[in-house]
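Our working data are protein records whose layout never changes between entries. An example says more than a description, so a record of this kind follows.
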Amino acid sequence: MNLLNEDNVVHVFLNKLGDIVIANLLFILFSIPVITIGPSLTALYHCMMRTVKGNNNGTTKTFFRAFKENFKQSLIVWLLILAAGAVIILNIRFLLHAEGSAAHMLFYLSVGVLTLLIIFTLYIFPVIATFANTLGALCRNAFLLAFMHFPTTIAIAVITIFPLYMTYLDVKLQPLYVCCWFFFGFGLVAFINSMLLYRFFKKLLPPEEDITLL
């Protein structure tokens, strides 16, 4: 086994691992203001999509460019998600303690809307990272892709939400979880999700632009 060969399995693995760690640290750094989490998440997915395809020529440069070029669309979507999520969660908390059949019906309706919002959130940032279009078209396509590939949507939801839930639940191991999230956690989740999404994303891109992205 020639370890100096760029096509060597070990070499490819280390390159991808390096991409994940660098993109993860950049994501955390650019997410510190909180309102920029959306653009940071889009840039993270842009880097991971390129890593999956094998044409991520410089993670830092790729991240900065994607962050800048998708900033406006991602920021608008993120702020709308935050506002909608806050309203829905407050509504659910209120209805949880309300009496009457109407309140119960509204409670389940609110839970359903929250579920749709979560599904939308899982898809919209990878979609913005991959496709160039109007914001309305991107949002519509995010919903369509989520329900057209529902088994993948379930897998992405589990991969994304379960580790976060375990971090919140397991108090004793929280320092270890936090350490993992800091160095590679967000990047690894985005990388795995990108592998799942790329299977059908690539079919929607022109052959000559195969995941050149943006």
About this structure: DSSP finds eight helices and no strands in the chain.
